[in-house]
Fold each of these.
Amino acid sequence: MKRVTAIYPGSFDPPTNGHLDLIARGSNIFDELVVAILRNPEKDPLFSLHERRAMLEAMTQDYKNVSVDTFDGLTVNYAEKIGASAILRGIRAISDYEYELQMALMNRKLRPNLETVFMMPAEKYSYLSSRLVREIAQLGGSIEGLVPDLVQQKLREKMDPAYKMEQPIPGKKKRKS
Ligand code: PNS
């Protein structure tokens, strides 16, 4: 039987609960799902590629058919290189549709046998985006429930490096004063 590998490409800066919701849905319908982080030298991301990869790996460790990778160049070329036959993308609202349709049709023009599959995240994430999470975190608002705890902690460390110093080292006993 044919096994279907899909890629889920994106910037993931940072990964959110909406991304995780889509990964969970994708892992249910594809045999293999590769979360593919774009290496984009033009963008100045908040999190390095290494940090985003580490966060996504931690977030997806319970999904046995999900892996995380990075790529540059065209998404369709990367998909071909790893033998993927589908691209997974999320659509939250009508506003996403035009951009996603344009990208899907352009990818189809470039590689006609690669299908784009759209899935909808849970309604509670329909207003969620990495851009808004970055903005809220940078301006000191609460991002509780919008990103996994691990990402929330990494965002806090980014915004306030002193926060990292205050955290107890696991397993290390606090000295009595
Ligand atoms: O999370 P994003 O930023 O919405 O993801 C956009 C992404 C990475 C899927 C898109 O920019 C992309 O595919 N870039 C790779 C270059 C490419 O293939 N461009 C042509 C797209 S039709």
Amino acid sequence: MNWVRHTVFTVLPLGLIGCAGPFSAVSEPKPYGPTPTPAQLAWHDREFYAFLHFTTNTFTDREWGYGDEAPSVFHPTEFNADQIVSVLQDASATAVILTCKHHDGFCLWDSAYTTHDVASSDWMDGQGDVVRAISDACALHGMGFGVYLSPWDRNHPGYGTPEYVDYFRNQLRELLTNYGPIYEVWFDGANGGDGYYGGARETRLIDRESYYNWEETFALVRELQPGAVIFSDIGPDIRWIGNESGYAADPCWATYDPKPLKPGGTPAPGATKYQEAETGHRDGSRWMPAEADVSIRPGWFYHESESGRVRSPEELFALYMNSVGRGASLLLNVPPDRRGMIHHEDEASLVEFGNLLRACFETDLAVNATAKATNTRGNSPRFAAQGAIDSERSTYWATDDAVTSAALTLAFSETVTFNIVSLREYLPLGQRVDAWNLDVWVDDAWQKYATGTGIGSRKLIWTAPVTTDRIRLRLDDISTCPAISEFAVHLGPLAQAKP
Ligand code: FUL
């Protein structure tokens, strides 16, 4: 029945579809709860992207520079932005975020506001600009480019005074003005502590709730890069997942309200109950999806001693399943080495990881299945089951509002073997599904395959391989009609325990 309606739909003149045509009477479901902004929607499409931690630490073998490192310490011998970005693209990363300034305060670009930068180093006779090189390489390869600017600066003499906040914003202005479109601006929650501070060598603690006046900084980002998403412990667009191990909780809701550390306080980066970010809040008042950051090595920066401890392609795949597969994004850190390139151990793992992703997700075994739903919204082809298997995120299966339980069945023309099911909701209408069940047809009966909570931007269900000619998504006791934009099945690496 649904299939027939779909066929009628596809032969209609394009002009009739979705506007003044015979189906226009059936309206789309009302949004449920908070919904994403256009910049957040574009961010959801990125799913997996890379972090580059690179500064004087790379050459001093440290994780947090004290701030007293001489600029001459920074001397990559074969810096190659194209190699870095190409390897990341081979791994299937869609974008790159660069630590333009880490806590040590050394700037990877020639900042007009300090001499503690690449222009004061001997590297390329002081003419080098890592931010320019990486952003140009990203543009060339069609990858997004994002900036990390550490709010904490252990070099600056004024850290802790209002003067430093102006300095921080001036630097942000440089980065958001001179390097083309920025897709994400990353604010770290680590701020305040001991440091060099222009020679004072002391501990400077700041009031994390008030010192930076974050609202003003966020407004500056909006003004200079309206298409960018802002990341921090408190969003406002993308939230930290609350761990640095690369996994989201299951479920991980896209909605979230950052909580203050103390009643009556103001949540701020470094001052919020970040532990709640792993799951988010089902009843949260804001769309603030999570980003899971993790390093391919034990440290964030390159250390020769860790070159034997690079995560394997299989481990990276598991990270992907437990972050992207739970509705978060995966921000995988890959630290350039002292040459200024991706080390061969990391490269080998990344390239194979990309191969695993492509081998798994480029073949959707459900794409030629017949999709049938127990109910279709207004009996309209616009909301038919086919919308969930057509590889289009803009089409979706929806039911009538009054429906309290519904099922979507895929029938394959011959048996298929898979171990990953991919579900997605149509995000412009919010995160709608609370609980779901999957059944497979085995020995002439439906058998329970998996059950869970929450779908959102993506839910990847990873199990032992199963062979069947039918699979069913069952939604029972629903409180709002579903809008399912993807129901795909894949065969990938064998499931592993959470890393
Ligand atoms: C942390 C920092 O302190 C680490 O050095 C690293 O940059 C990580 C991504 O965020 O808060």
